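Posting for a labmate who doesn't have an account.
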Amino acid sequence: MDIYMAAVYTNSYMEGMNRYVKLNDREREIVNGLPHILESWHYVGKQSYVDHMRRLGAQVFLDSGAFSAYTLGIKLEVSDYVDYIVRNWDIIRGEGPGNMMASVLDGIGDADETWRNQQEMERQFRERYGLDWRPLPCFHAGEPEHYLERYVNEYDYITLGGMVGSSTAQLMVWLDRMWDKYLTDGAGRPRVKVHGFGITAVPIMEAYPWYSCDSSSWIQSAAFGSIIMPGISAKNPAMPMSVSEKSPSRHDWGQHATTLSQVECDYVYKTLEDNGFTYERLSQIYESRAAYNLWAFGVVNSLMNANASPTFRVRSAELF
């Protein structure tokens, strides 16, 4: 599985952007070496973003950003999205013949619109540009399952979305059903490559044989004054740790790096130091925490891959 870090360019952490200048050499090294980044067309559609990404040799997974646009009352057009992809194919990753790592322009709350957009994008690539390109289709939680069945039968790389806002327990009930009934064969092996959009819970990353997923937890954790401590144990490969000197949790025993036991505190400080970080910067500088979390998710990704099962088995009976 590859974990894509969401919105690194959008949040201005890449070279030449305003948050990059606040990073030290170690933190810049991390940002410069990121292997997997996801960006949304809704946010990086401006030519200034494209030009900057091109100068840096970007190869990103492109999401349409339809949900974000929808919440702002902005209508995105299929033809504009297709044009953007064709003009800027060089900054978008590829995944085998015909598969651009660009997701369909999904219809929010309308599975049939998403399917129509899928067909229309393929038609425009073919008829307007003579290209045999197919965006990655997207099936959203709660949609009629025959759409997922169609995608599995007709595509070799699909995406699952609409999972933001549900609890981990709720999602796992639904995901157990999807993986068991549609996404794996009788031996529990994936029938297609599957990307999970917006997955922030590590247990969900671990529980299923995803081919890829993306997360914005690196920036969210930093904003709330926390870092991710990787590799605490096999059962807990990613533990959030509050470190900000302004965090209210610094007054609560065991809830902040400064209120841990001496043994735990020594472990945290040594882990940071051994990997080129200082507690002082992480406790005071938001951008430093964000860069650290980008590194930490890379470690978590490696740990999960080392322990991952290539097959899936339902862990409990379905509730419905």
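Reply:
Got it, the structure tokens are right above this. The chain has a mean pLDDT of 94.
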